[in-house]
């Protein structure tokens, strides 16, 4: 049974359980809810949660574990001579899954019968058969891959039926157990609130464990990279020249230089404009103007970065080339340059600086403004000498948060700055950043055991440490500010 329908059935069972649990509790109290230990809704919620939560938990765990178990079982049965010299076991398993999914699709569309899919032989018609249902294969299907794909389908189908049976049994068992405990003396509210607390802790744990998993994956792969490539050359070399044929030079300094150069230009654009906009909105604008202007500024934060990248590639780059290119000052060779990406990224960061600074300026106590006005200061003098000094720690925190956002940007850099890893002071030269090279190193059929592919994790770990440090510093400053003025 498809997972969607399985979840739908369990959800319907939980709704029915809510109504029946509530009715059973009232019946046990003779229709007088005042006799019950808890409100009737808690009894219904107890039955619903007992049927829903364990079943959905099993679905979640099963969906994660089943592919891992099937892949481990099938990959162990693939003979070594079935793996081409130019391929790896992971690529062969990708072909197995693609063929298995194609056979499932062919059976569902009636191109093949279920029996024909099980007895299909590895001849030249398989690619045509799967191509007819929209599954493209890059190479011929060998007998070993076809046999593994058929086994994959069998195990996957058996796992799906087993999941259906266990989930329905668990949901029904929870339903019956909760109904058997439903009576006037049952402390339903305590049980439901404890269950909700467990769900909240589980939700928080998922976020923490996800972060921990990301960090650990970066750390382990970074360690593998430094086993193949010396860390001293990675952090000190001035050359970035990866070559999958061997002899790569993987120095991070040109990438860090491009990342910081573009980020500085972006901040030079975003910080003055964003800060001046925040001062105007908080101190000068009328409520009507503020109600219109602030949402319009914040719309910039909702525009996808790929749109900013296209804007940089198609509009800002050609415009700068007309002014600073060969027809103008002669400083710029192409539309992709540090200045192109920096200007567009700065526009993207304006709402980050503006919104955060506006909230921080508004948090300055009105009594400080009134005291300044009472001493005869003008509005501009009050802003310069009272409000901005008081809000400065928070504004610095907002700028640092915007800087960490700029350092991690990818699409604007890919489309607007070019792909050249170089050390140059000219802002009209094409350069690249750490994030752009992470994308390029993991694109294509790269062998993940090679340093040219594993370097992406080392780059990601370096970027993670930099942005984490900026975020911690910014949060420290903001927290110190809040403790002072709240």
TrEMBL record:
Keywords: Cell inner membrane, Cell membrane, Membrane, Phosphate transport, Transmembrane, Transmembrane helix, Transport. It is a multi-pass membrane protein. GO terms for cellular component: plasma membrane. Residues 256-474 form the ABC transmembrane type-1 domain. One of its GO terms (molecular function) is phosphate transmembrane transporter activity. It is found in: Cell inner membrane; Cell membrane. The chain crosses the membrane at residues 6-21, 42-65, 158-178, 198-220, 260-281, 301-324, 330-353, 386-407, 453-478. It holds the Pfam family DUF3708. One of its GO terms (biological process) is phosphate ion transport. The keyword NAD does not apply. SUPFAM superfamilies: MetI-like (SSF161098). InterPro entries: MetI-like, MetI-like_sf, Phosphate_PstC, PstC_N. Its main location: membrane. Part of the binding-protein-dependent transport system for phosphate; probably responsible for the translocation of the substrate across the membrane. PANTHER family: PHOSPHATE TRANSPORT SYSTEM PERMEASE, PHOSPHATE TRANSPORT SYSTEM PERMEASE PROTEIN. NCBIfam families: phosphate_pstC. Belongs to the binding-protein-dependent transport system permease family. CysTW subfamily. This is Phosphate transport system permease protein. It comes from Roseovarius nubinhibens.
